[in-house]
Amino acid sequence: MQWLNNFSKSLYSLETLDMRFAKSTTASQNSASDASRTSAPKLDKRPPLSGTKPSKWWTIEYCIYYLVFIIVVPTMVKQVYDISKPGSPGWDSFSKRLSRGWIPGRQIDNSDAQYANFRDNLPYLITLLILHPLFRKLYGTFWRIDNYKLPDGSNTSLSHDPSSLAVADARLQRRTFFDFGFGIIFLIALHGVSAAKVFLIFYANFKIATQLPRSYVPVATWVFNVGILFANEFCRGYPLSVIARILLPDIKAAQDVGARIDSYSGLIPRWEVLFKISILRLISFNLDYYWAQAEGNSNLTEKKHVAALFLSERDRVSYGAALRDFNLKTYFAYTLYAPLYLAGPILSFNDFVFQSRNCLPTTTMVRSSLYGLRFLIAVLCMELVLHYSYAVAIIKSSPSWTQYTPYQLAMLGYFNLHAVWLKLLIPWRFFRLWALVDGLDAPENMVRCMSDNYSTLAFWRGWHRSLNRWIVRYIYVPLGGNGGGKVKTMLNVLAVFTFIALWHDINLRLLAWGWLTTLFILPEVIAMIIFPKRKWKDWPETFRILCGIGATGNILMMMVASLVGFVMGVDDVKEMVKGIFAGWFNAGFVTAAVMCLFNKRHEVPLHVTKVGLFEGEADLEGLHVEQVVKYTYDFMDDFNGTELLEDFELEDKMTRAEARSPARKRSMGRVGAEV
How far apart are the C-alpha atoms of 526 and 410, rounded to whole Å? Predict the structure, then answer.
């Protein structure tokens, strides 16, 4: 059984999830074989770190927590299962939204249009995942690297060893030629004649970056792309029939021709819905080019004369492309890259160019297979949830909240949020898996379970993580980050969440979500100021209880904000909350639920980390102590508890450091002013 234990540790290690979480990038890249080991890393027994305390796993306190788990968690599942059975309140209303399931005796809740579209087309997407890398390999056999002409100005030769810059440049040309050609075919298949509209927007953005005076590029980039975001929403994708009716109102034939052309709309007629992810790539290209002009015409490997495999991800994102790489072919290859085009994860232009030029040792077949297995497990989990919990269909049917008990109402909201988490996690992991199989390592978007969060800022750092990193690099840091005091920082956070809300969809509900999220961050920030950990060193148990209270409040506020933004809207959430709090009995239920949250969501997860530190090893997915300290996001952790606000830009602290050069500092400051 040892092999099974080792396999499970490897399957659920952070390295399998994303090699960016490895202890040392350079250490993990010493060889491809090191990156592809299937056994978990061996942990060296180390002495306890100073200040840590013995395990509490078998104390009376934690035995009470175990009892709470055993009783409460099954009843949580039972509540939503009971209201999903035939004959339950509202069955006649929400059962119309159910579909035939593959589990005997169960229907499936496939009522979420976004996930239903992905689920129904998953077999075709898997076929594409298999064929796309095979087409690339076939292309590579006919068009070998030595058939390519090197970029102008390159003084290297292909006759050198395989690690030479010349071979890397040739590999970049080969990949971008294929990505450009395949992307055109892919885009036409997706959007039909509307592909021409996408190309036109892409080309206009490229001209803004390359033809305007450099000082105008940031403001022009933001005005153009935010304007496109609004125009796409209000013009509904610019149908030609509508354009003909506006320009030629008296010529019916022109409108008919426009409608006929619009009918060739491809597999996804509403191209503007998916274009939002492309907006981020367009901004990334323009601003990376803007900053690259201040750095010169060489990439970092040429400047520092270091092997590409030993560059950190920070260097790849900041300096991965030379000026000569910012050309039209590479630009279209980046914006049309098929595995990441529809939903991401978001990869910066610099990182895309670097990985297209250099094959990272993290993209191994073994690691991709393990990641694919985790994807399949997530899909199976979602299938079980949709077959046995109809929470999504119930809420979509707008039921009378008075027909449910407070416990049932709370579980309806809770399991809806789990469905939202899974419906986003699964497509993101699929498209990232596709990119991994194709040789590109994009960031993992979901790095922790929805139920394993008790810090508001840490939650958003781990939810759609690639977007968070994009926001930090292109908005938060140029605005000043956390360098202007707490008030300035909160204004920057408000600007960030307002942009995120508008980017998701231009409606009041998501704006309310963005502003609520910013509002709910304030208690956490204020608590860190009032109760800094350094002042509670002599009262650790009291501080632990205070942390639990704060964590419980954070959980409740995060649930409310997420339900408002992604599930129900403001009015329905207000009605649900009224139903939960109505009457003394209901108030007693809420009190008991809060106590369970205090125990379940804070005490045990936080103690897991501390035990590993005391025992000299952290048996958390095979991580060493330093890794646990570095990558634990919990804001009340003994090692980084008071630094949460700075941790909002944990992924980009080095970006602020890199701005030390006068040219880069002026560039980022100008972008911030224009944002």
Answer: 28
| Integer angstrom CA distances of residue 177 from 274, 452, 534 | 24, 43, 56
pLDDT-derived band at 6, boundaries 50, 70, 90? confident
Give the up-direction half-sphere exposure of residue 612: CA atoms within 13 A in the CB hemisphere. Answer: 23
Angle at 413 between CA 412 and CA 416, to 5 degrees: 85
Contact 109, 392 (CB under 8 A): yes
Gyration radius of the chain over CA positions: 26
Q: How far apart (Å, rounded) are the C-alpha atoms in residues 227 and 283?
A: 13
- Interhelix angle 662-674/271-295, rounded to 10 degrees, is 150
Greater confidence (440 vs 588) lies with 440
Give the Cα separation of 265 and 191 in Å (integer). 5
Q: What is the DSSP string of 48-93?
A: PPTT-----TTSHHHHHHHHHHHHHHHHHHHHHHHTTSTTSTTHHH
Residue 100 belongs to what H/E stretch? Answer: strand 99-100
Across residues 49-67, what is the average pLDDT? 73
pLDDT at residue 39, rounded to an integer: 42
Q: Which helix (H) or strand (E) holds 349?
A: helix 349-357
108-146 pLDDT, tens per residue? Answer: 999 998 899 999 999 999 999 999 999 999 998 887 655
Domain ranges of the chain: 2-35, 43-77+455-463+493-667, 104-131+362-440, 143-357
For residue 307, the model assigns a pLDDT of 57
- What integer pLDDT is reported at residue 50 of this predicted model? 54
Closest CA to 398 of 85, 117, 96: 96
pLDDT tens column, 131-189: 999 999 999 888 765 544 444 544 444 444 444 677 888 889 999 999 999 999 999 99
CA 84, 85, 90, 92 dihedral sign is: positive
Active site residue 504: yes
Q: How many other CB atoms are there within 10 angstroms of residue 648's CB atom?
A: 24
Residues 440, 353: Cα–Cα separation, whole Å: 10
What is the average pLDDT score of the chain? 77
- 132, 504, 602, 607: which is the annotated catalytic residue? 504
**CA dihedral sign, ordered 253, 254, 255, 256:** positive
- Phi and psi at 640, nearest 5°, equal -140, 30
